[in-house]
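Hi everyone, sorry if this is the wrong subforum. Our group has a chain we'd like a structural model of before ordering constructs, and none of us has done structure prediction before. Sequence below.
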Amino acid sequence: MARILAIDFGMKRTGIAVTDELQIIASGLTTVYTKELIPFLKDYTSKEKVELFLVGEPKQMDNTASESEILIKPFLIKLSEQFSNIPIIRVDERFTSKMAFQTMIDSGLKKQQRQNKALIDEISATLILQSYLYSK
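Answer:
Right subforum, don't worry. Here is the predicted structure as C-alpha cells:
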C-alpha cells in the first residue's frame, strides 16, 4: 500500500502529516514554508509512494467556507496539475488548531514550546489525517 499525506495549508506555513504504508498510523511529518510546499511534495513523492492527498477544508460554524478558502483554491489547482495521478480529498479542519494546542498542553510541553506555530501546524495536519482514518 501507499501512504496518505495530509496538508494543513496556511498562508505562511503548512503542516504535513503522513500515514505508515499500511495506512494505520498518522504521524506528523514536518512543517514547511508554504512557498516551498510544491517542491517539497515533489521531492517527497519521488521517494515515497503517496496514493492520496488530504487537504484541510476550513469552515465556519454554519458550515460555509472560511475566508481562508480563497487562499487554498489556487493551491488546490496547482496541486492537481502537478500531481494529476494522486487524488485530493478535502477534510473539515474546524477546531484542529485548538485541538493541536490542547494536545501540546496535555503532552506536558512547556509554555515556550507551545508557542511553536510550526509544531501546531504539524499537529493540526496529523489531526486532519486521524479524522480521515477514523471515518474510513
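For your construct planning: The domain at 3-135 is CATH 3.30.420.140 (Nucleotidyltransferase; domain 5). Helices lie at 37-47, 69-82, 96-106, 111-114, 117-135.
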